[in-house]
Amino acid sequence: MASAEYVTVRFGGLVAVNDASVPVPEGKIVGLIGPNGAGKTTLFATIAGFQRPNAGRIVFAGRDITRLPPHRRARLGIARTFQIVQPFAGLTVRENIAVGAHLRHVARAEALAAAEAVAQRVGLEPLLDLPAAALTVAGRKRLELARALATEPRLLLLDEVLAGLNPSEVRDMIPVIRAIRDDGVTVLMIEHVMQAVMALAEEVHVLAEGRIIARGAPEAVARDPAVIEAYLGHGAAARLAGAADA
């Protein structure tokens, strides 16, 4: 379906992403995890077209799209959410979702109808006529997901869509994301909520200091000493192993 291939992104002397490759097979949920500052959002921005790589390429549906701008990629079927949710506060939930739906539906009535259908999929139907400014954090996260979903993507990039939610809200969102995959949308998700990664992702890639340091099934990756070191610091894997043997 899609892949980032040997991608490098530099900002002056800072290498944010360093020769990173992330394949995303069609019909899967793939996780991208790593400590803060690892380069995850930069890699997402490169896949979505908001950042041009210094090296490497982005492939989607067998086509090199590295030089295509974001709106062309959206037309092809790539949508993303943003870590910082910023809805149009003066518009209703329905109208916010319709903004995304207008990519495929020019007529206002059609876009609003499509927005209502998307709202049903993400659990926002009872809130359609509320102003977006009135939503809770959980509601705004669902709205961000709905706006991306309204573009009718084939590949959905979720950037910490569960961040800021309490455990109950996370549990409620897991089946929503799984249902999106079941409806035929491939998902690549950045996430720090390991409960969700373990429940959803079929494969996980770990980014640290711009490099992919591990990949595989979530259970295997969680036990990888290099991953433990990246998250918990130098010597953490040895300390944990020592504690387990004690």
TrEMBL record:
GO cellular component annotations of the record: plasma membrane
Ranges for domain ABC transporter: 2-234
Domain of life: Bacteria
UniProt-listed InterPro entries: AAA+_ATPase, ABC_AA/LPS_Transport, ABC_transporter-like_ATP-bd, BCA_ABC_TP_C
Keyword Nucleotide-binding: yes
GO MF entries: ATP binding; ATP hydrolysis activity; L-isoleucine transmembrane transporter activity; L-phenylalanine transmembrane transporter activity; L-valine transmembrane transporter activity
Assigned keywords, A-Z: ATP-binding, Nucleotide-binding, Transport
Stretch forming the signal peptide: none
Coiled coil: none
BP GO annotations: D-alanine transmembrane transport; L-alanine transport; L-isoleucine import across plasma membrane; L-valine import across plasma membrane
Protein name: ABC transporter ATP-binding protein
Source organism of this protein record: Elioraea tepida
Biological classification of the source: Bacteria, Pseudomonadati, Pseudomonadota, Alphaproteobacteria, Acetobacterales
